[in-house]
From TrEMBL:
InterPro entries in UniProt: Aminotrans_3, Aminotrans_3_PPA_site, PyrdxlP-dep_Trfase, PyrdxlP-dep_Trfase_major, PyrdxlP-dep_Trfase_small
KW Transferase (keyword) present: yes
Record PANTHER family: AMINOTRANSFERASE, AMINOTRANSFERASE CLASS-III
Designated name of the protein: Aminotransferase
UniProt cross-references to Pfam families, sorted A to Z: Aminotran_3
Cofactor: pyridoxal 5'-phosphate
Segment forming the signal sequence: none
Annotated keywords: Aminotransferase, Plasmid, Pyridoxal phosphate, Transferase
Keyword set includes Transferase: yes
Entry's family note: Belongs to the class-III pyridoxal-phosphate-dependent aminotransferase family.
Organism expressing this protein natively: Paracoccus aminophilus JCM 7686
Example of a GO MF term: pyridoxal phosphate binding
């Protein structure tokens, strides 16, 4: 296909002049370089721009449009709710029907030891809620000195002040004065980047756990409030953990009274082939952060799912101290909640968790068959419908391409062939996280386009 894009009309000019975009090179955008697309429509796993170009979206926008584009059931639910009641707040016990129904649906799907869900707007604010409630929990229990939070390098937890501090990608910290003091980062479970090439995966896991334990001892276990991690790291490179990783981390945290926040903004609601990554990888979190798949991004909504043991302390605390002074105007927004109810219904009705469990392994199999032998392919990995291919100059010698331009070049070459995949920010990594309705034929198209793009950029 040929992609043609208008760049010189009013809309493009106004975009450059007035609109400060997230995660975009400001000067280049203003000059019209790096102009993105003006997207106008979509159906299934395909998005359409205003010039009529169609792209197969193998990243579900930002791994969020899980049910795919153009679902009229969700649009109708949003329209009906907007007509009936666009908004009323949920402070002071006020409520709305879609939020009540959605809370029930979320808790029916959450791991059994979880108790209640608090609704916010975006993954970032849900993570901030979780940290604040973790601090509140420790204060109520008489341990106010537990303030520090451990996350991991390569983790992504948002762009707020606290969530951005927990994020472990240097680009989100430098020249922003982050992380805040007390936000610590331990090592990422990225076996390919192990400190010593001769380490087995089991030895690497031992090393990770020793380093975590050493950090906790050095800081003082009694000063640490929580550990936050994605069951499968997303933005840091789509990194399924080594076998047994979460059981070992959980044991360390339990021994030191440290709460676990499972950030399931990406992994929640089916992406790993299970409803939650916590189920699949055996985590026993005190908080689960949800967003993206909760509404498939048809409207903004996030949530903090809270465990029974934390809720017990919060309930007792409120008997003594009164109102939980935390909330956003738009918490449990009725229009977003209606989108959530329609989304989770659709996930069930279309069997999308099962589809992720079946089509995901097919994607890995096709990637390995077509690109596994390429001289620059260091690793092909994934779980459910999350996959990545990582490139190195010389994998056997553990020599990386420097600088990290190969990933962006490959994703650009794919886009020119009509398929969207994401160059992940930390490494020459192409990530795949398509809508959960992705078909085998769409996998075949994606892998064929990737292969052509790799050949163009790196040779055959
Ligand atoms: N946590 C994870 C794991 C994420 O991937 C993201 C967003 N990509 C966030 C939190 C932040 O969510 P939001 O952008 O909705 O604030």
């Amino acid at each position: 296909m040929t992609v043609t894009t208008r760049i010189n009309d009013d809309l493009a000019a106004w975009d450059a002049e007035h609109f400060l975009h997230p995660t975009t090179h400001i000067a280049n955008h203003q000059k019209g370089i790096m102009a993105g697309r003006i997207v106008t429509g979509g159906e299934g796993s395909t998005v359409i721009d205003r010039d009529g170009n169609r792209f197969l979206d193998a990243f579900a926008a930002l791994y969020c449009v899980n049910v795919g584009y153009g679902r009229t059931e969700i649009a109708d639910a949003i329209a009906k709710q907007a007509r009936d009641l666009a908004f009323f707040h949920t402070f002071g016990g006020n409520s709305n029907e879609p939020a009540i129904r959605l809370a029930k649906m979320v808790m029916e799907r959450a791991p059994a030891h979880m108790s209640k869900v608090f609704f916010g707007l975006a993954g970032s604010d849900a993570n901030e809620t979780n940290v604040k409630l973790a601090w509140h929990y420790h204060i109520l229990r008489g341990e106010p000195q537990r303030r520090k939070v451990i996350s991991r390098w390569r983790g992504y937890h948002g762009s707020g002040i606290v969530s951005g501090s927990m994020t472990g990608l240097a680009g989100y910290h430098t020249r922003m004065g982050l992380p805040l003091p007390g936000f610590l980062h331990t090592d990422a479970p990225h076996y390919l980047r192990r400190p010593d090439a001769s380490m087995s995966e089991a030895q690497f896991l031992d090393w990770l756990i020793e380093r975590l334990e050493a950090m906790i001892q050095a800081e003082g276990p009694e000063t640490i409030a929580a550990f936050v991690g994605e069951p499968v790291m997303g933005t840091g490179g789509i990194l399924p953990p080594p076998e047994g990783y979460w059981a070992r981390v959980q044991e360390v945290l339990d021994r030191h009274g440290i709460l676990l926040i499972a950030d399931e903004v990406v992994t929640g609601f089916g992406r790993t082939g299970a409803m939650f990554g916590s189920d699949k990888f055996g985590l026993r979190p005190d908080f689960i952060t949800i967003a993206k798949g909760l509404t498939s991004a048809y409207a903004p909504l996030s949530g903090s799912i809270i465990s029974q043991r934390v809720m017990d302390v919060l309930v007792a605390g409120s008997e003594e101290h009164g109102v939980l002074a935390h909330g956003f105007t738009y918490s449990a927004h009725p229009v977003s909640a209606a989108a959530g109810v329609a989304t989770l219904d659709l996930v069930d009705r279309l069997g999308l968790v099962q589809n992720a469990a079946e089509v995901g392994p097919y994607l890995i199999e096709r990637l390995r068959a077509e690109l596994g032998q390429h001289a620059n392919v260091a690793e092909i990995r994934g779980v459910g419908l999350m996959a990545a291919i990582e490139f190195m100059e010389d994998p056997a010698a553990m020599r990386w391409f420097e600088p990290m331009t190969v990933g962006p070049k490959i994703s650009a070459a794919m886009l020119a062939r009509g398929v969207m995949a994401r160059a992940m920010p930390e490494g020459n990594i192409i990530g795949f996280a398509p809508p959960l309705c992705f078909t085998r034929a769409e996998v075949d198209q994606t892998v064929a386009v990737l292969k052509a793009a790799v050949t163009e950029v790196l040779g055959g």
